Amino acid sequence: MIVGIDFPPISHVIEWPALFLKDSWFEVNKVVVLMWVSVALVFAFFYAASRARKLVPTGVQNAGESVVQFIREGVILQTMGAEGLYWTPFLLMLFSFIFVCNIWEIIPGIQMPVNARIALPLFMALLVWVLFNFIGIKKQGFFGYFKAMLFPPGVPKALYLLVTPIELVSTLFVRPLSLSVRLFANMLAGHLLLVSFAVITATLFTLKVVVVIWPVSLALLIGLTGFEVLVAVLQAFIFTILTAVYIGGAMHPEH
Amino acid sequence: MSHLLLAAQDPGELAKGLTAVGRGIVYGGAAIGPGIGIGIVVGNAITAMARQPEAAGMVRTTMFLGIAFTEALALFGFVLAFIISG
């Protein structure tokens, strides 16, 4: 409590009361509902974009095509090459879904990013983990995949003592952990940042003398909201591009 | 001074204060290295883009990858700071 600023504890900021199925494993709260709405929105957007296709795109089709083009040319061709175009639908859905889940953070009246709870990022990271291991084993064979992963060629024999454990831990354990924690922590940090500045702005407004610095705080709050739009896009992009890199690495052994 | 003495007599308050200090140290320490690292990554990417503007797309993609890997360490510290409980 400094000059009457009372920050809410973190559990008040990210935990929501159950709407139904209370105290069971399938408890439904605001975050779950937002996740369902995100699925519906992404589906509706791409359905509307592809329903009446025209040679010269207009409206929704224009927006849909620019997203597809961004995934094809900004993500896949930069990391996996032309062979990776098979994965366009998967990466497109991953990007769109994560972006819509993130952008709830700044929609007035909702202001809760779905990815600020670990469940969804962790599930998606585990999905990617299963996927790239499956592809690696399918494309290179079980022993070929682990040989390429654990014994990268071009390393002096004695260094394998050091390299092999590091590669094992970094590929099988750190990859899913960092993939999920990166998305989760970025959205949680952004959410807490906006909460902090909203609380400071509201408190300063009620004070008598200090009210002169209230506009500065309000301007920062608005600026940070714009910054969070950037973070929402960037985190969706980074999750997608890392998925593309992992899948591309599993298709072709490093050499 | 009397406040300090009072705090020292109440072990619960002392533990809460030390937890808060520990959280600050954990996140502050975890942010030093990634801060320097992201600076190096972005600085070199800008140099590369200025020298070869036609390769800017490829450099930007690689730059975001480098930032993502470097930033992960700071985020582990951020999460750890919340996990610490007094």
Describe this structure in words.
- The complex is a heterodimer of chains A (255) and B (86).
- Helix content of chain A is 71%, strand content 0%.
- Chain A contains eight helices and no strands.
- With 86 residues, chain B is an all-alpha fold.
- Chain B is rod-shaped.
- In chain B, 9% of the residues are buried.
- Chains A and B meet through helix 3, helix 7 and helix 8 of A and helix 3 of B.
Oligomeric state as shown: heterodimer
Class per helix and strand makeup of chain A: mainly alpha
Q: Which shape of chain B, going by the Cα principal axes?
A: rod-shaped
Tell me the structural class of chain B: mainly alpha
What's the number of extended β-strand segments of chain A?
0
Indicate the proportion of strand residues of chain A.
under 5%
Distance between the termini of chain A: 58 Å
* Weakly predicted, low-confidence segments of chain A: none
Strand content of chain B: under 5%
Q: What is the C-alpha radius of gyration of chain B, as a whole number of Å?
A: 21 Å
Tally of contiguous helical segments of chain A: 8
Key terms:
heterodimer; A: 255 residues; mainly alpha; 71% helix; B: 86 residues; 3 helices; rod-shaped
Map the helices and strands.
The complex is a heterodimer of chains A (255) and B (86).
Chain A: H1 10-14, H2 30-51, H3 59-79, H4 88-103, H5 119-140, H6 142-150, H7 160-206, H8 214-251
Helix pairs in contact in A: 2-3, 2-4, 3-4, 4-8, 5-6, 5-7, 5-8, 7-8
Chain B: H1 2-9, H2 11-51, H3 56-83
